[in-house]
């Protein structure tokens, strides 16, 4: 079993829809949870991070952590074609980050 | 603002050949990292460095070597290329380490797509 599981998709939704992206994890020692966005042929860039459980909102994006269920989510409201990218979750443990495989998101105009 | 610069962007190698992937950052970051990204897999850490002259192995170091003679540069060396090293390689940097107690942001380069045939 992988430490971090993430559905690779692709997930295709119409413009304006609410998108939900998710990761599950097995190690309860993870404390910081991050979402990176990766456009095609580019390196990942940090989108949001959360510490421990709870929600964090930044514009159209909301990150949610449920440590009791070992489950994290990223919600995108009013999705735009420019949101089309691969979204990777990451969690830190000791000196390194443990990454999900990434979910490819396609927003159709 | 260049950030993290990787060269080359694409390369095809024959089995057994050697090459060096270059990485340079202009943000005066102490921490630098090499990752590989394979389809359907998360990023895997190859090597990392906490400062000039200090390097350490990550999760998948076999077949690779690194050096860090300056703060700015962190080249990755493939000595005897094998088909299993076909991947996209990313260099990243950060001002602090990605430890348990920090939420440090990584800055990534645009990657090097390597094929070994």
What is the distance, rounded to the nearest whole angstrom, between the alpha carbons of the first and last residues of chain A? 37 Å
Shape of chain B: globular
Q: How many helix segments of chain B?
A: 0
For the termini of chain B, the CA-CA separation is 36 Å
Number of strands of chain A: 11
The dominant shape of chain A is globular
Radius of gyration of chain B, in Å, reads 14 Å
Which secondary-structure class do the elements of chain A indicate?
mainly beta
Low-confidence runs of at least 5 consecutive residues of chain A: none
Q: Could you tell me which chain pair has the largest interface and how many residues each side has?
A: A-B, 30 and 25 residues
Comma- or semicolon-separated keywords:
heterodimer, A: 109 residues, mainly beta, 6-stranded mixed sheet, 5-stranded antiparallel sheet, 11 strands, 58% strand, B: 117 residues, 7-stranded mixed sheet, 4-stranded antiparallel sheet, 0% helix, 47% strand, globular
Provide a descriptive summary of the structure in words.
The complex is a heterodimer of chains A (109) and B (117). With 109 residues, chain A is mostly beta strands. Helix content of chain A is 0%, strand content 58%. Chain A has strands at 4-5, 11-14, 19-25, 32-38, 45-51, 54-58, 61-66, 71-76, 85-93, 96-99, 103-108. The radius of gyration of chain A is 13 Å and the shape is globular. Helix content of chain B is 0%, strand content 47%. Chain B is mainly β and 117 residues long. Chain B has strands at 4-7, 10-13, 19-25, 31-37, 44-51, 54-57, 64-66, 76-78, 87-94, 107-108, 112-116. Chain B has no helices and 11 strands. The interface between A and B is medium-sized, with 30 and 25 residues.
